[in-house]
UniProtKB/TrEMBL annotation:
Pathway annotation: Protein modification; protein neddylation
Organism: Oncorhynchus tshawytscha (Chinook salmon)
Pfam families per UniProt: UQ_con (PF00179)
Uppermost EC category: transferase
Alphabetized UniProt keyword annotations: ATP-binding, Nucleotide-binding, Transferase, Ubl conjugation pathway
Highest taxon listed in the record's lineage: Eukaryota
GO terms under biological process: protein neddylation
Enzyme Commission identifier(s): 2.3.2.34
Protein family according to the UniProt entry: Belongs to the ubiquitin-conjugating enzyme family.
Protein name according to UniProt: E2 NEDD8-conjugating enzyme
GO MF: ATP binding; NEDD8 conjugating enzyme activity
Source lineage: Eukaryota, Metazoa, Chordata, Craniata, Vertebrata
UBC core domain span: 32-185
Active site: C116 (glycyl thioester intermediate)
């Protein structure tokens, strides 16, 4: 999978006329983001939750990938929810941009795909936002946890969904299942 790493080494050798691993040509620069991603994607693939599947449409662009989350418990069990993850050039000083591609009835995910997850916030007053020490693995585990232990009805993005849960938990469950049936199969 880590074809970008081997491609970088191969391209470096072709450009400079030197074998891979030799001194590099200063005109050929690989971004810090791409160097970090080579290591982080390997770590992510080795530690992916069993309910998640990452896919890279272009193996040479590790900064753009999709994540499918299929919860095995709770309200969202039996659905598969797709996320698009873009890692900006300024990574790891700024968090990845994440959007839910699946329409969902969830207190922390808007029906339009925006996500309320503290570690995706660039600035956070509670200290739980993005920090350069965080990795893609943290992002994936955080997204996965939005369907279980990080499901938060007290600080919602989708206020209607949170209030619906507060009013009638069984009707909330039914609406979630209806959304799964129509959008998350």
């Amino acid at each position: 999978m880590l074809t970008l790493a081997s491609k970088l080494k191969r391209d470096e050798g072709v450009k400079t006329g030197r074998p891979p691993g030799g001194p590099s040509d200063s005109s050929h620069r690989v971004s810090i983001r791409d160097r970090l991603l080579i290591k982080e994607v390997a770590e992510l693939e080795a530690n992916l939750p069993s309910t998640c599947k990452a896919s890279f449409p272009d193996e040479n662009q590790l900064h753009h990938f999709q994540l499918a989350v299929s919860p095995d418990e709770g309200y969202y069990q039996s659905g598969t929810f797709h996320f698009e993850i873009d890692v900006p050039e300024a990574y790891n000083m700024v968090p990845p941009k994440v959007k839910c591609q699946t329409r969902i009835w969830h207190p922390n995910i808007a029906e339009t795909g925006e996500i309320c997850l503290s570690l995706l916030r660039e600035h956070s007053i509670d200290g739980t936002g993005w920090a350069p020490t965080r990795t893609l693995k943290d992002v994936v585990w955080g997204l996965n946890s939005l369907f279980t232990d990080l499901l938060n009805f007290d600080d919602p993005l989708n206020i209607d969904a949170a209030e619906h849960h507060l009013r009638d938990k069984e009707d909330f469950r039914n609406k979630v299942q209806d959304y799964i049936k129509h959008y998350a199969r």
